[in-house]
Specification:
CATH architecture of the domain at 493-752: 4-Layer Sandwich
Largest sheet: 8 strands, mixed
Radius of gyration: 30 Å
Strand content: 15-25%
Low-confidence stretches: none
CATH class of the domain at 493-752: Alpha Beta
Number of strands: 25
CATH superfamily of the domain at 493-752: Ribonuclease Z/Hydroxyacylglutathione hydrolase-like
Distance between the termini: 47 Å
Shape: globular
Helix content: 40-55%
CATH topology of the domain at 493-752: Metallo-beta-lactamase, Chain A
Structural class: alpha/beta
Length: 756
């Protein structure tokens, strides 16, 4: 058997995958303790500073041993993050390995409640962390510290301060991310710039960092006369210490293990077989943390190396000039990671292939300059103050110049609009895509051997088959899900206390009705845009803003400001200016003008139609008379075949009578006995959705959009009782997350994001 160790490791990894799939870890159930204050005792296993509004915030990572809740001692074995504000003075006393008691409010990380939304529960669950203590205060500290862990943590902190002192806050923050794995000081705008340009990977501790650090250290040791064997041992220990210092992220663990295995293979005059080393590294990492198998960091880190080891030789049989070699390497990594990139992030950067041609070579210089920045030149004999100043100036100029070049490259890439939003492919498509990629690699790697057995004129057909298989693999994942949709798809997004309804049409295209929240910060950034990206929606055909309340509009303002998703038309309620409500829409109207988005006003009896779906506005009436924002809410009746839906925004009793009368007439003309779905008005307020109104619209389903435990008490019990008495099944975003309705012919299928 060729590569027996590699085969054994692959089978071992498959076994871990099956075990994780069949018996996933069970998260702890905190029950009634969530949202309540308690005391927690545990051992510190890591600590770090993160940016706060006024001062750094200290994050303590604790492995708990006991909880005290309502004067009861509860043995508990789990990991927590404790968040301490204004805790700079406490850093030195809170040593890794010590046992501490903290007091604060317990909360748990939230699961994603919308498609495309970041899943905090899964992310931290992969690290074995399911709870956090906010506003924590230290009650007591005892026990002895772990000398090595505490020393490495202090080294990381001190080195980070050294980088910021020498290179300035902005450049130092980037170097901290690159060399120490600490991104806390980087601005979100810069992270997004790197991400959109396809070079965010430079901020991960990778093989380049390990090879550069080890090369510098090995050369220094050899220069000092240390033997090869001892130099190898020292390099190994130092790389392991470096990995522990930066928190041993998956990318660093993979790079260090591959480096160590390769180093000792050469020392023992054995072949450093890269597939075997890669498989062995994966097996070791997953033995310690099996939950990493399904994390994006693990899959992307190992996937990048697989692209170089397996796909690159299949694409290029002979070595070419260095520039072409670099291009093929970058292209191979891009192609191999593409299905995973879309599955986790829903978009790809084509310009990143070319941008990395300049980024990667400069990265070696940047890492070297950063490493030299750690050296206190003033302590070196014969290096005077003037010479030290000159050296520091050279380092600062070099680092700043490279980082400015990176930013300029990213901005140029953004100008070319090289980021393609393609959506999240189904998991089975990703698996099938990699199966076809594997077949392509197999056919190409045996091309010379197998083509010798066929007729000469068939060789060209052989290679065409290979190319077809490769193209087929990417066609499986690059077609946006919205384009593949055969049904009318209506998604009531969970935006907390607010409204957002996305109506997607068969074969592509969509309307958005409202989009805002009064309970979720940056709702556009963290919920609306991720949803649209996950569906592969790059352009919204029309955005309907029912009225001027922020819980229906602020997310749309974020979408317009962000600019990644295009909006073809903004539709506002008729009579806004006549009623003196223009000030409510001033911000979004200004943004629409800046982005050249046409604005249209509609009122009762105005209609839209698209791909068989009809949208008829029932409110506000013309001429406009209402003075309250809720009263002039746009109300739409949606019809698609035998399906009907009434979107009532925040309309209340004052406007329900007119809407009910219009709805009754239209439904009677259409032969409908009530509506299929009612978007319950005003998040379930007791002043809306009266019994008289329900007796006319006769909904089969009532959908309520509201936040969990909101301060308004929505939905009120009276409304829920009225809906049930009317025979409607109630669905709530605070309980179900996003509610997805698919309409196909006479069939209506409803699914819930948080289905039990």
């Amino acid at each position: 058997m060729r590569r027996p160790l590699c085969t054994a490791c692959i089978l071992y990894v498959i076994g871990i995958a099956l075990l994780q799939f069949l018996h996933p870890p069970t998260p702890p159930d905190y029950g009634s303790m969530v949202g309540k204050e308690l005391s927690l005792g545990g051992r510190i296993y890591a600590k770090e500073f993160r940016n706060g509004e006024d001062s750094p915030i200290l994050y303590l990572y604790l492995h708990s041993e006991e909880l005290i809740f309502e004067e009861q001692n509860i043995p508990h074995n789990s990991n927590f993050i404790c968040i301490l504000e204004d805790a700079e003075s406490l850093y030195a006393n809170l040593k890794i390995g010590c046992t501490v008691w903290v007091h604060g409010k317990l909360s748990v990380y939230e699961s994603a409640t919308n498609p495309g939304q970041f899943d905090s529960f899964a992310y931290y669950g992969q690290k074995g962390i399911y709870g956090k203590i906010a506003g924590a205060t230290i009650l007591s500290v005892s026990g002895t510290a772990n000398p090595l862990s505490e020393y490495l943590a202090n080294c990381r902190h001190s080195l980070g301060e050294r980088l910021e002192f020498l290179f300035g806050k902005d450049d130092g923050a980037v170097l901290k991310a690159i060399l120490l794995g600490d991104r806390a000081g980087m601005s979100e705008d810069l992270k997004m710039l790197y991400k959109d340009a396809g070079i965010l990977h430079i901020l991960a501790i990778s093989g380049l960092h390990i090879s550069m650090l080890s090369a510098v250290l090995f050369a220094a040791l050899r220069r000092l006369g240390v033997s090869v064997g001892r130099s190898t041992l020292v390099c190994t220990l130092c790389m392991l210490a470096y990995g522990l210092m930066v928190g041993m992220p998956v990318s660093a663990a993979r790079a260090i293990l591959m480096f160590v295995y390769g180093l000792y293979a050469k020392s023992f005059h054995r072949t450093a077989d890269r597939p075997t080393i890669l498989a062995l590294s994966a097996a070791v990492i997953l033995t310690g943390s099996p939950q990493n198998l399904f994390s994006s960091s693990f899959l992307l880190s190992f996937g990048a190396v697989c692209g170089i080891i397996f796909l690159k030789p299949a694409l290029q049989k002979e070595r070419k000039q260095p520039l072409f070699e670099s291009l093929i390497t970058s292209f191979s990594v891009f192609l191999f990671l593409l299905p995973l990139q879309l599955y986790f992030y829903y978009e790809i950067s084509v310009t990143g292939i070319f941008l990395n041609l300049g980024v990667i070579p400069l990265m070696s210089i940047l890492v070297l300059l950063g490493i030299l920045g750690f050296i206190p030149f003033g302590w070196i004999p014969l290096v005077g103050t003037n010479l030290e100043t000159i050296i520091q100036s050279v380092l600062q100029t070099g680092v700043h110049g490279i980082l400015q070049a990176y930013e300029s490259g990213c901005e140029t890439a953004a100008w070319f609009h090289g980021t393609l939003i393609l959506g999240k492919p189904a998991l089975w498509r990703v698996i099938l895509a990699y199966l076809f990629i594997g077949i392509f690699i197999c056919l190409r790697s045996h091309a010379e051997e197998w083509t010798e057995r066929i007729k000469p004129h068939r060789k060209r057909e052989y290679h065409l088959v290979c190319i077809t298989i490769l193209l087929l693999s990417y066609s499986l994942v690059m077609i946006p899900p919205a384009f593949l949709e055969k049904d009318l798809r209506i998604t009531f997004l969970d935006v907390g206390q607010g409204d957002c309804i996305c109506v997607e049409f068969p074969g592509g295209g969509c309307f958005l009705f409202d989009g805002g929240s009064s309970s979720v910060n940056d709702v556009g950034k963290y919920r609306l845009i991720p949803y649209l990206k996950s569906r592969g929606i790059r352009k919204v055909d029309a955005v309907f803003i029912s009225h001027g309340d922020q819980d229906h509009m602020n997310g749309m303002e974020e979408i317009l400001t962000d600019g990644q998703i295009q909006i073809a038309m903004l539709v506002l309620p008729y009579g806004v200016e006549e009623g003196g409500m223009a000030k409510d829409f001033s911000t979004i109207l200004e943004l629409a003008e800046q982005k050249n988005v046409p604005v249209k006003s509609v009122g009762a009896k105005t209609g839209f139609s698209k791909k068989g779906a009809e949208f008829l506005c029932l409110n506000p009436n013309m001429p406009y008379q209402e003075k309250e924002a809720n009263a002039y809410s746009q109300v739409f009746l949606v019809r698609y075949g035998s399906f009907s839906m009434l979107l009532t925004a925040d309309i209340e009793e004052a406007g329900e009578a007119a809407v009910a009368e219009a709805t009754e007439d239209i439904l009677a003309e259409s032969g409908f006995d009530g509506v299929t779905v009612l978007k319950v008005a005003h998040h379930g307020s007791r002043y809306a959705t009266s019994s008289q109104f329900l007796s006319v619209v006769k909904p089969q389903f009532g959908v309520i959009s509201c936040a969990e435990n909101n301060r308004y008490g929505h939905p009120h019990k009276e409304v829920l009782d009225r809906l049930r008495e009317a025979g409607a099944e109630v669905l709530r975003t605070d309980e179900s997350g996003a509610i997805i309705i698919k309409v196909s012919g006479e069939k209506v299928k409803i699914s819930e994001m948080l289905a039990p």
